[in-house]
């Protein structure tokens, strides 16, 4: 019976079945792609580090005579690869396309940072004319394996270099908005060592790979003991990858939220279409009951066609997800993916291939059962819905009939053949408004953060290196303080200390003019010599919070126990990032260090002052410092926004999807109301309602649905957007400031009402042009 009916259904309703299959395919492909992409992105960092022997830390003694065998002999050190500072450029390419450092021995690419080769091969360490590039370099410059570039060295001059491979490793992973990197073989340094030497020799840095059971704290303690130095800068590369993993985790969570929203939308819309198809088929099969068709047979027969459409759609969706996998993982994770290209997540795709048809068949069986039990669209109503209080009030206060009827159509689902999907429409409108407002709120916050340096703690406008001579530095500070456009100056002495295995750049908070106010995230700034405020990344690495006490070791004898008073951002410098380091009082700095490693004047200008003009004026007027002058320059401002811009896209995609859901749900409800309540409208027309009033009924229905969505969606959307922004701001270490969404709120109301009324244009025209006599005769 089921087979015969299915053949009949295909001949007479194949277009409907094809549409259902395509709807299922679209929904399945969207959900499966998002879930598989989330899983791939979340594991990208672990899969890359498992294959590349990444450096755990980088040791930078800034001493050409440093004995690296001391580091190699430390406990837990498995390998050390030396790198020389890059002094070459690439002819014809902009600055920044060269690597930060050049390999200086054969350990690089072999025992440390053993890169994943995406194309070609690794360079021969014996050849100075070979190099490898990252994927972003190929994309930005169009130069890949087999191409030749010219490296320009200070002494040797031009060196023709052939690109032999495209690689990826934790140290050589690309990042958004960057041009990619070219890294030569170790043979370049071996052939031209003089091109990498400073006046005292080559200041190598060492990439150190530690054993899995060795911590950075243990290594730092061992290094200080073995060298007798506590001022050696150590960069924690493993912590950097942990930060990348955090960003990738946020992106993956966002993709899972997107998948969940898409799945719910599919259940609400596509599932509803499948259920209605099954219900209609079951109602048709009631005619065959007299021939001996049992309810069980009817249910199975009614579910056959939707089940087949769902199975076909699931298969197409799985295929689409497999094709789409070549564009994943998404965002930051894409820059650390060791195997870019298509990747079939068989557990996810296999689950979708089985689960989607099963859910469709189950829904179809339930819909058919309701029809045959007399509780579905083809039988008696299960319950009579109470009239809407809003529509009742409109009627009581004598509002025009089109407004009263339109409100009832918007808020009262009705029953039997005249039932309208009111709840899906209201839910769709609410979710659409909520999603769009949440995304707009989040986008506004990201725009503010990426255009306002203060969100990253950069409250100063200019800086001036003060040099080593105290008298000259004091003269510079005094001269800067007299400029009429300067509102505050901080005398920032900078020293390198260690605490619990972490290198901490300590800045002195010493306002010599005005008030220098760093951005404080929690607690307060230090007031006495035994207090300190930590940058958030440093606090996280030390597992310290305001109120805790930490031991900090500088260049003076012994460690100092200091109380953490708060979390605050620092100025960017060559010694630190904005979220790394600590603030100390001048007295506290003096207790930690014999003298500063560096000293800088951080200058805050008055509002409206032109930073370039002031910098030029100050540079011309300042007295010379002991080491060659004190040129005033713009603040060092590293671009910390790419990760936020990557994260900004996903909510916008989700908002677009939810907006389509809202349009579909509201549009379906409006069209259904005109079709299923045409008898009511025909009666109203027969007793005197005009065509214009008939249009007003549908337009009122659309407006009421939009207003209901706005009343609930606006406050929830703003609250959700701010909540998501607070979470992202904390995770990415940005100063959280609630975004101003006044303009968005003012724009949302007219846009939502206009969209709803545009959706109502066609149904209202159908209602107005209805042939009253034909409808009444048919009923």
UniProtKB/TrEMBL annotation:
The keyword ATP-binding does not apply. One of its GO terms (cellular component) is plasma membrane. Keywords: Cell membrane, Lipoprotein, Membrane, Transmembrane, Transmembrane helix. It is found in: Cell membrane. It comes from the Bacteria. PANTHER family: ABC3 TRANSPORTER PERMEASE PROTEIN DOMAIN-CONTAINING PROTEIN, MEMBRANE COMPONENT OF TRANSPORTER-RELATED. This is ABC-type transport system, involved in lipoprotein release, permease component.
